[in-house]
């Protein structure tokens, strides 16, 4: 297993039981009648339950290790109207997407923030905002006239001190102890880097460790509002958490449901 595959496995283990966002996107998906697209679908945590409900849903991600796990989940469901493929939010290059329109598009679990990085390249705040603009423009191009677009992002308030060093979990898997911890650094305003430390302890006492840094961009509420406006989207609902409390500046999350202007 390479480092990307390991990280994808750790990611899937860590968020296996996170359900608040799954319920939110699942309920929206049940309300629409038409094809659905998840951009940055990762390991299929949210896509798989929607696929299981019989909906036509497509998902793409830039990370093939994440997609391998998503594909395995879908294979076990034996559903027909699902496509999972590699693509880049900034490009939408897949021929599959040519002329394809969706009734519902979503971008979950802070994915817009992770445009601050691609492979080993770390983008400045200005470059990241440009990449976010490109991604949203691509989404608008593939959204039906009356379609819905939903996404969530952490609010800048959420980066509290307790996140500086964080132990995520240790789990025994086939006689190996898998542990994940992280440290957060803020190299420049709006950017934070999560340094993941993955560790596998074997029964013979040997230990292997990997360092996997991930960079994210903290958008402000105003930035998001103006980005949406620039690309021709209009928020119809804005929540501050997945209990659907209205957004306020102290909210931990920014959750938008948008339509085309
Ligand atoms: C925090 S994860 C969320 C994954 C999934 N949506 C979920 O809720 O579990 C962010 C995802 O965005 C993907 N991503 C980052 N940059 C991307 C890009 N340029 N194009 C497509 N996906 C991207 C990452 O590979 C990762 O799977």
What does this structure look like?
Helix content is 28%, strand content 36%. The protein is of the alpha/beta class and 261 residues long. The chain has 2 domains: 3-156 and 218-260, Vaccinia Virus protein VP39 (Rossmann fold, 3-Layer(aba) Sandwich), CATH 3.40.50; 161-215, S-adenosyl-L-methionine-dependent methyltransferases (Single Sheet), CATH 2.20.130. The protein has a 7-stranded mixed β-sheet with strand order 3-2-1-4-7-13-12, with helices on both faces. A 4-stranded antiparallel β-sheet has the order 8-9-10-11, covered by helices on one side. It has a two-stranded antiparallel sheet with strand order 5-6. Strand 5 (117-118) and strand 6 form a beta hairpin. Helix 1 packs across helix 4 (64-77) and helix 5 crosses helix 6 (221-231). It is globular and about 60 Å long. The chain starts with a helix and ends with a strand. The mean pLDDT is 94. It binds S-adenosylmethionine (SAM). Residues 15, 40-42, 45-46, 61-63, 66, 88-90, 108-111, 114-115, 118 line the site of S-adenosylmethionine. S-adenosylmethionine (SAM) binds next to loops.
């Amino acid at each position: 297993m390479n480092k990307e595959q390991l990280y994808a496995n750790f990611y899937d283990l860590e968020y296996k039981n996170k359900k608040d966002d799954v319920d939110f996107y699942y309920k929206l998906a049940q309300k629409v009648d038409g094809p659905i697209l998840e951009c940055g679908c990762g390991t299929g945590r949210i896509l798989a339950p929607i696929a299981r409900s019989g909906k036509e849903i497509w998902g793409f991600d830039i990370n093939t290790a994440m997609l391998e796990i998503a594909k395995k989940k879908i294979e076990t469901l034996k559903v027909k109207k699902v496509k999972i493929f590699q693509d880049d939010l900034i490009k939408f290059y897949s021929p599959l997407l040519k002329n394809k329109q969706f009734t519902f598009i979503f971008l979950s679990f802070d994915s817009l923030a992770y445009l601050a990085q691609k492979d080993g390249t770390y983008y400045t705040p200005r470059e990241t905002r440009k990449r976010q603009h490109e991604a949203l423009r691509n989404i608008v191009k593939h959204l039906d006239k009356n379609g819905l677009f939903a996404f969530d992002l952490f609010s800048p308030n959420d980066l509290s001190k307790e996140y500086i060093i964080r132990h995520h979990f240790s789990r025994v898997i086939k006689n190996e102890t898998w542990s994940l911890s992280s440290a957060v650094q803020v190299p420049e305003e709006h950017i934070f880097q999560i340094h993941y430390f993955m560790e596998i302890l074997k029964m013979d006492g040997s230990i292997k460790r990997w360092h996997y840094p991930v960079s994210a961009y903290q958008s402000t509420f105003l930035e998001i509002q103006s980005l949406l406006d620039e690309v021709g989207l209009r928020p119809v609902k804005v929540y501050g958490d997945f209990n659907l409390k209205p957004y306020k500046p102290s909210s931990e999350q920014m959750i938008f449901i948008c339509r085309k202007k």
